[in-house]
Write a structure and sequence with these properties.
By secondary structure, this protein is an all-alpha fold. The protein has one domain. 75% of the residues lie in helices and 0% in strands. The chain has three helices and no strands. Helix 1 crosses helix 2. The longest helix is centred in the first third of the chain and has 12 residues. The protein starts with a helix and ends with a helix. The relative contact order is 0.21.
Length: 40
């Protein structure tokens, strides 16, 4: 796992209303935590 992926994964869990379960679902849906933040 890259440093960017780790940072984005941690950031997702800190976003209000997302948490660990929501972050996992977003990552599974889009392929990576980096892609979640890159999506517009």
């Amino acid at each position: 796992m890259s440093t960017d992926e780790r940072i984005c994964s941690m950031a997702l869990t800190l976003c209000q209303g997302i948490g660990h379960v929501g972050a996992k679902r977003l990552i599974e849906s889009l392929g990576s935590a980096v892609h979640v933040f890159a999506r517009r």
